[in-house]
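The material for today's practical consists of a large collection of protein records. An example says more than a description, so a record of this kind follows:
***
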Amino acid sequence: MTSVKEFVVEREPTADDLGAGRFAFTDDYSVFDWGKMPDPIPGKGASLCTMGADNFELLEEAGVPTHYRGVGPDAEPLSALEEPPRELAIELATVPDLPFVDGAYDYDAFHGEAREAAGSVVPLEIVFRNTVPVGSSLRSRAAPSDVGLDLEDWPAEVVELPEPVVEFSTKYEEQDRYLDADEADRIAGAASLSELKSVAREVNDLVTERAAEAGFVHEDGKIECVYADGEVRVADVVGTFDENRFAYDGQEVSKEVVRQHYKRIAPEWVDAVSDAKARAGEEGVADWRPLCAVEPPALDPDVIERVADMYAAGTNAYTGTDWFDAPAVGDAVDAVRDL
């Protein structure tokens, strides 16, 4: 189980074959790696599932390998449904254990188990960036000149990159870490780093084009992958308002809206999370959450309603189909500008 979706296993993966199952999307959400937050956002799960299916089917048309099988228990194409789905049918790859021993993660053990499986999850997140929004972590890790920009400092506005930037971070560690090429290559295992980059760029191009057709700017996002039959396949879910950041008429349309809202209404919790992660690193422990003494507050009901409309209206606009009874996307976006 993850913080926003659950697994339904139909057939376990084996040493000879991939398994089959479904992601069941909930209305829960997570920010700052906290896990399940106090409030669900109505309709959010169906929004993520619908956008994800739409993007997987676009990738399928473009010839990009994925683990997608369809939507719902019968693994149907999205076009066969009249209501937005909440379940994404997928092939299941093996997820090896990643031991944490003496303050370090044992990737040799992870890949030893992976070699015995028909297919396994690549323990990386592949991040692509087209712009650098104000909330982007890239600002704290790189100077503008490092990514081809003729600027001394990061301005307090979105910056468009001359070329997309692809980065790698850990997937299964309690605290995500961005990696240099050598460490990313080691952690990737049998999957080729160049192939992972190539697939990420294909996904980025497709989502960027789809977003532009609907009036969005695709700022950044990530993919996760499985390695099976000697090839990299796009896995998890792709191109949603949780995995990616989009803007519409200059306003963020993604989970970033909630993240920035919490920075404004609960800075003491955001700071406590940061302190707990730092302390966990210093003490060599994997789970930082027990070290955080502050709990996140619940959201105001009006905020939840506006965010729910943003997800629903945004999905309608992105897919070009009125799956949800929601305001026009421009109205929904305007409603979250002051959050």
